[in-house]
Fold each of these.
Amino acid sequence: MSDKTFLGHPRGLATLFMTEFFERFTYYGMRALLVLFLVAATDEANPGFGVDRETAGAIYGLYTGAVFLFSLPGGWIADRLIGQRRAVYWGGIIIAIGNFLLAVPGGTALFYLGLATIVIGIGLLKPNISAIVGALYEGQPGARRDAGFSIFYMGINLGALIAPFIAGTIGESWNWRAGFAVAGVAMLIGVLQYRMTEHYLGNAGLAPANVTGEERARGWRNVAIGGAVVVLLTALIYTGVIPVTITGLAQIFAGGMVAVGFIFFAGVLLFGSLDADEKKRVLLIALFFLCAALFWAGFEQQATTFNLFAQDFTDRSWLGGMFADGEHPAAWYQSANPIFVVIFAPVFAWMWVALGRRNLDPSSPAKFGLALVLVGVGFLVMMWAAQLVVATDSKVAPTWLLLTYLLQTFGELCLSPVGLSNVTKLSPKRYVGQMMGTWFLGAAVGNALAGLIGGHVGSGEAAAMPVQFLQMCFIAGGAGLVLILSSPWLKKLTGSQQ
């Protein structure tokens, strides 16, 4: 390990910080453009993909859900076959290739191939770069490790913050394909700096040494078989041999992941040889899985429903003189969440500590409930905004969207860090890795549902939006209130102080 440091931490943290910065720039730049590009007409000056909004939402849901789902095999490939370092390197290259495929004007096959390529790349890079960060702090105090992850988390949010202003502006205001190309170039820059400074990582994330040649060969055979099955199913669906629409496929995908989650939890509870206390904690993790899926189903509509609302019903005249159509890009609003995270994450960290000193820190179920309530209130704000659109038949101020994003960010800060921490604490020791997988599975389900919901809402008339937003307010907010009211019992049920 190098003696050089980065903000008082191992120099290798800077390597990973910058890699994650460019990867998140790539992901959020492309994410800000995806639905807007999909619904843009093919005969415009800046031609899009020309699909209806419901199909666009389904494509988005399939893509983002698959990104989270493929983190599971991506972690396994690194652990058993190539190591985290090589997984990050090749993941970055594959992500760049996928974005460049999106940048090439072509038919549906090429576009879907680009999305699938990005999914594979993120699946390799995303879970493993975090594992390398942890390896840099082996044997060091927990507080120092937490501080290192906080710095790393800033790289995530800075990349997400900047991307919509650069890739989003280029894509929406000039050429969609050029926006995807910018995202690909950003990932290449990240891979290049990673390769040039990789030696600062020392031995962190190297290929597993405890895997025999026979085990590695068997692992590669399993990867090849799994890949062949996925390719075959994709080909059968694309050619119409298996008749299913994109929206239907997204519904099957979301439903299938929920079924997998229930089967897994039932199997662990019934056949996992758990004692009574362990079973109670697993039941709480199962509840967290459902809450996470519901939360992300609401939160991730930022890139679907709210992105389309920004395009169609938000007054974007501020700085509009800089652009040909007199309006700034709708993609800019995708930077609101990371801006709020950068500002308020330290505030929430301080607040939990301050409440803890006074024995007032809410339990984990209560924090999850609060997160859902905040998402529900965000939809209530959007209901009022939609009512104003219908009543005045004109666009509304951006403050409605920004307030909604602020509330959702507060919800994210209540749920995301708390969820990751508590799944590891509550899991039976022999199931920690698999239980962490259910957390990512919950996020995958939520993203898939967000695409389906967003496509449905975005494809309707403005007059239908107030009722739809109110329904989502009742679902998320109601679930959150039930969880808050049940939190004392849930806390007692687990015999923990969570």
Amino acid sequence: MGAPPMSAARRFAVISTSERPTGQRVLFRQAVVMGGSIAGLMAARVLSGHAEQVLIVERDDLAALDQPDERLAAGPVEPRPGVPQGSQVHALLPSGLNQLERWFPGFIDAALAAGAVNPPPTTNRFYLDGKLRADPPSGPAAQAGLISSRPFLEALIRHRVLSIPNVTAIQGRADGLVLDGARVVGVKNRDAEIPADFVVDATGRSSRLGDWLDGHGFPKPPMQRMGIKLNYATALFSRPADAEVWTCISIANPGPGKVARIGGFTPIEGDRWTVLVSGYDGDRPGRDHGEFRQRCVDDFPPEFGEVATTREQVSDVITYHQADSRRRDFHKLSHFPARLVAAGDAVASFNPVYGQGMTSATLHASALSEYLRGDPDLNRPARSYFADVKVVVDAAWQVSTMADLALPHVDGPYPRGYRALKLASGLIFKASMRDQRVNQRLGQVTTMLAHPSALAEPRFLLRALAAGARG
């Protein structure tokens, strides 16, 4: 008899390990990654240990954008054209930071030396429904370590990946797949074909992989959507060295006479703050500087108004809208080509205010490493990879969608047992305000250091219930 299957929590622990990978061996002559996002770069890093040559196909000229760390420290890094939301606030959760250090040893120290920020613990604030909370369960206000802009972080990763001798980036647009029976053997790039022994789709939430599969007689992956109608705006402000508050997160839950809003400001490289204000449905922050400042004053704790009215604004206001969270359930497909996987937003993209996107991309890379180091049968679909990716997607999806389902304009889809899950979530959150161990476990889940099933252990639930009763 074989060993029993691992629980989701145990499998998540394996995927999210910070231990350096071992047992890498060359499996391919050439692997191709479609897309040069963080998901694509991380996939290329993993594949560099398993292929003689790794080719990244990206619309943007990644080689022209490449610059060493010392040049990053010299001035602001502009968003890459292919990342429309690149100017917005991005959070790298602790689990994602662990993965970057795992795959690029010394990454944290190098990032800090180049200008990333590690705020002193006493300079962080977390507000819930207008009240300052002493022990926030998650987010930059609770988990200091490394904060920067998205362009800066991506540039650090990009430089390290493109410095690997067997990784090359070419400017192009992947237009389809080349198949030999039930096996992928290449990628269409405009009018040419690129041979490939293995292909990763990292082309983002607008991925056309489903259409390409359909064109070859394979089923499209089923897609789940949750309409969130998120609107937010971001602007940059100068940050003094002696600021009393460096990071501030504010969450306002919906309720009678209350509007759901999430805002935050975080320190980034170049002695700046990036300030975000958000709304849902018809609540749309605009690009007007005066309106942005007024929202900071009227809709958020006083720290926001102080930054917006006393510090110099050093950028335009950039707006962004995301209609839905979505996931493509590749694991449900019974018929799928061999030597093909998807990663990052091409699999799932979530409400960005929870900061799960970049971290999920790093964990998908870890899942790819687990698959390639597990002596895979490359003539069959990568089912174990998609099973591991499902564990990661489930973890992020449960945390973000449970919060989004509380919004009055969100009407599902509701998970099985939603009422019980909602009751348990409320109990745990209230208990986290009174019990440090409950708070710590909740923080591990919301920062993707642990799987949400860790909150369902009977002993933990009893402790949470007791903490709630004491209140």
Amino acid sequence: MQDFVIQECQTISDNFTKLKDLAPQLQKTVEVCINALKMGHKVMFCGNGGSASQSQHLAAELVGRYKKNRPAMAGIALTTDTSILTAVGNDYGFDEIFVRQVQGLGRAGDILIGLSTSGNSSNVIKAFELAKQMQITTVAFVGESGGKMGQMADIALCVPSNKTNNIQEMHLALGHMLCGLIEESLFHE
């Protein structure tokens, strides 16, 4: 058991060390989010399963606070309204749960951050397709291969793993860095 723990810790450590290679993509993501927020736009998040939870977590960091007491920022997780999710899922299909929200809530100049370990979540891909038509910047938090989302996103953060748990760990770390850098830039003292 101890060998397993040691090996898992080493894998996590190695993966997090490799995240520094994504600094240019993260910087660009921070910049587009800051510009959008300054212009009165919003940052929307979406994903399925654990990625849905992380979407909610990151939106909460923007609306609530990450580390600083400051005014709320416009962040929304498209994973939270059970009435919308179930109505759209029932009436139009699960692949439409995010695209319908982007259509109704999104505006040109907004940011859509999609999280997917595979990069091939069809409901997120559909939301990205519409977002591009609506002039909403798309950012993909995906695994190493990037999947279809990585290819189509305006900015792709392809973390260095193909294992779901490790991808999600790195997505959260990148998300925290994103929120921290946005907060620091907009509300520095």
Amino acid sequence: MLIRSNWGDEMQVYLDNAATSQKKPEAVFLAMENFFKQINCNPGRAGYELSLTAGRKVMETRERLARFFNMKEPNEVVFTQNITVALNIALKGLLRQGDHVLITGLEHNAVVRPLKALEKDRNISYSIMPTDPQGQVDPVEAAKLIQPDTRMIVATHASNVMGTLVPIEELGQLAAEYGLDFVVDTAQTAGCYPVDYKRLGATVVAFTGHKHLLGPMGIGGFCVSREAAKRMKPLYEGGTGSISDREVQPDFLPDQFESGTLNTLGIVGLGAAVDYLEQAGLEEIRAKEEKLTGKLLAGLQELPGVIIYGPQDATRQTGTVAINIQDVDNAELSFVLDKKFGIMTRPGLHCAPIAHRTMGTFPEGVLRISIGHFTTEEEVDYLLSSLQKVVDAI
């Protein structure tokens, strides 16, 4: 065991932002508190003033997100419980019996498990696009996998394990060339890297609110054009507050996919977070992330016995870095960093076994270190000095 009594906790450092952003802008708390205390009514379900006010709050967030993702109109932004639900709606709503899909070698189980279910239910098949151990996807080689029954390309914008940025613009061009649907998972990039729906040529761009978008948990969604939505089947049906005289699901956005009471409190918090991000500026946010990631990578490269996965280039990845220390179990390492140094990281397989097979780290996994918007240089220095103590103790 690596635990030593003379290693004292000096700081509390959160480095698991790929799972969720722990710190949020103060404006998020204030917006949610104000809504909960002063409004807290169901939007779109009545004509009294507070219900109408709640509806306006929801629309304000749609408008911010439409601007943020460069959508034509606010109603092309659909709210869901999280990005997993959004991806399920996209995959199960667009794919038909016998379709073939291309995915990257980095996909999260939020993509793989729905495809596995569709494999059984609708005879869907999928192929993994050539992806090297650093996470680099080759669009040219990917084109060779396209078959007559290929209908879709699905791609994460960045690996949730090692941060590698995927060439989604090139994949979008490939999808357009062959007339394929293109579904993009932005769980690791929305909020810290530009995502432009129109420029990507995407069919669906799925997002989650609680990571780099700096909103609360329990809110996510997807962007989809009206034209593409006409081809999508809802995952579930129910009350929408619209055309309530009919017993069939509305066929217009966003009601088509938004049955039941929305997480309005979460939507309000997300709206405040997006407003904060717009004011901070994505270019500045990305520049800070690159600087801190470069500092982290340079420091890790100096530590003997540390194995770094991914591009090891801050310009080609997010602030997520995957490592192992030779002869040290990554779960034990994460435990020691938490209990003895107050540093929070995540070990294991990160719900992405395909990515770990691509990396060559299955089944043992890696230790994931993920920088976020509120991470400081001091915290990166502290992590590196703590890892140095661990290395010295081996």
